[in-house]
């Protein structure tokens, strides 16, 4: 049976989500594992999670599945948080739960995201006609920032044309535009390396927790690569964040970036995969 937000017991649903987040095999990769972090991330979704949550319950009333959704009408995309399912419920309760949660988002593109070891989500995606995307390699560096002045500075609106050109070339159709990266009210901090006033590269990051900063975008102009610009930018983002850890994900189709992170002290932590559906507009 499927329940909507009015009928659920929020602490019981939160407990269920936290339990499923403890193992990559059942977790949604948008969220962490710490209960406080999960609660904080859910609270900050663009649509409140208690309004979008849908829950599947068994005949005895026990929760067997839950999912939450967030969407951005301007980007015409949604992000499904979950589904979190008991192992034997993926193909029984999963399809109707996924349909119910995505039906709320007035957008064409939908995405869900999990570790490659979450076979339940992979099966559900196949069953429901969602396309498996490129795998993402998750990297983390928890060692102190290498010393030496990175020479980076915060980006200003005057840097926007140069950042936009590089951003749209390297990350076409991505979830945040260049103007959003430069908006002082957005969650992003953006740095550039611009010796003699020419922007050679930029990095955009956001604080992820008390101890970590997450890098959303990093790109260096093709004619300035292999001269240490990328390393200055990543070190600048790490240092200016004041956080001990710096994390990010890289697509499997970016071997140069993976070589770059391996050589700048990052360790590979997990491999995750997005699943996407594009629906025609009703
Ligand atoms: C990944 C990227 C940011 C690296 O920037 P960069 O300025 O060329 O990197 P650096 O010069 O600081 O490289 C530092 C080290 O990383 C390694 N490295 C960087 N690019 C590499 C490549 N193409 N192949 C193998 N190793 C590489 C090398 O060990 C290099 O040191 P070396 O040149 O002394 O051998 C750049 O290639 C880029 O903008 N790529 C396109 C966008 C992208 O993939 N961004 C990352 C996804 S979030």
Automatic annotation (TrEMBL):
Keywords for this protein: Acyltransferase, Transferase
Domain N-acetyltransferase: 150-282
Signal sequence residues: none
Superkingdom of origin: Bacteria
Pfam families xref list: Acetyltransf_1
Protein name: Ribosomal protein S18 acetylase RimI-like enzyme
Organism: Brachybacterium fresconis
